[in-house]
Design brief:
327 residues; alpha+beta; Metallo-beta-lactamase, Chain A; 2 domains; seven-stranded mixed sheet; globular
């Protein structure tokens, strides 16, 4: 994500925090009312388990952040964006999820994206707690499937300069490696911050010989197909995972703002490196998904980010999965 977007989101959030005498009064009120104090405690780690064939899949929350939508969405007037949000009883800034997904395939443990790690300030960075709550350790992960090398997807690869998943091989589109880790691209528009963060997070795995890039649609692991979907980034990719006749696709950043981009799939976001290609990918993939009834997992839709698409005239409608809790 771009720095000015984070600054905007942080400013809008912190504006709601009481200051000075008002803060003291708020603190006194909490102390006088234990029930209020209890309600203010942090949320539990985000974990949601489900099955795909013989695979045990777990949605993991890396946290949420308030995202400024009107400066982000391209191609729609501000009043239309506000109206679309209001239809869902939502507002700008929109509380936006950062989701990752764990796939337990027996001898292999696959992680789709790694969250923001330490790179989003007070936002994100909760994946390690969610992973532990799900009953797994970072050293058990054998493969990491990066949808692309943006901070909120690859930031959790390294902590304090060390590989956070010491036994994992990173799978990622070759075009993203070529773009984000080549310093020569700074002269071609690559933001220095994005280059530095890619070096800090993906770099340790490259040095250790633990990166396996792909350049075309291919089965990179048994039952796991990488599907290049360039546009948002040059090497952006989906992953299709199949088991016993059932499938799921992990989307990455083909969708950021559900209330806006499902009814207007032609709307892009400022984060899309190639706006036209990103738009074309979304229109193509949404049509395919709606026709197939495919179960999908999205990085930035409300946790757990699982559902299916239905056509709604020229637009689309997201149908979240039913909630189950009966293990």
């Amino acid at each position: 994500m771009k720095p000015h977007m984070l600054v905007l989101a942080a400013g809008l959030l912190f504006a709601a925090i009481p200051a000075g005498h008002a803060a003291e009064k708020a603190a006194a009120k909490v102390a006088d009312h234990p029930a209020t104090q209890s309600a203010a405690q942090p949320s539990a780690a985000g974990v949601y388990r489900f099955a795909v064939g013989d695979l045990r899949v777990t949605a993991l929350s890396d946290g949420t952040l308030p995202l400024g939508i009107k400066p982000l969405v391209q191609g729609l007037p501000p009043e239309r964006i506000d109206a679309l949000l209001a239809e869902r009883f939502e507002r700008d800034p929109l509380e936006t999820s950062i989701n990752a997904f764990l796939i337990d395939a027996g001898p292999r443990l696959l992680l789709v994206d790694t969250g923001a790690g330490q790179l989003f300030g007070p936002y994100g960075g909760k994946l390690p707690a969610s992973l532990a709550a799900a009953g797994y350790r970072p050293d058990q992960v054998t493969d990491i499937l990066l949808t692309h090398i943006h901070t909120d997807h690859s930031g959790g690869l390294a902590l304090d300069g060390r590989m956070a998943f010491p036994n994992a091989t990173v799978h990622v589109g070759q075009a993203d490696i070529d773009f984000f880790l080549d310093r020569a691209n700074l002269a071609r528009g690559l933001e220095p911050r994005l280059h530095d963060e890619a070096v800090a997070t993906v770099g340790p795995y490259l040095k250790a010989g633990k990166v396996k890039p792909f350049a075309e649609q291919s089965e990179i692991l048994p039952g796991v197909t990488a599907i290049p979907t360039p546009g948002h980034t040059p090497g952006h990719a989906f992953y299709r995972v199949a088991s016993r006749g059932e499938t799921i696709e992990f989307w990455g950043d083909i969708i950021h703002v559900g209330p806006v981009q499902f009814p207007h799939p032609d709307a892009t976001v400022a984060f899309d490196i190639d706006q036209d290609a990103a738009r074309a990918q979304r229109l193509k993939r949404f049509a395919q998904e709606a026709d197939s009834g495919q179960l999908t997992a999205a990085a930035h839709l409300g946790f757990p980010g699982l559902g299916r698409l239905r056509r709604d005239g020229e637009a689309y409608r997201w149908v979240p999965v039913e909630y189950r809790n009966r293990e």
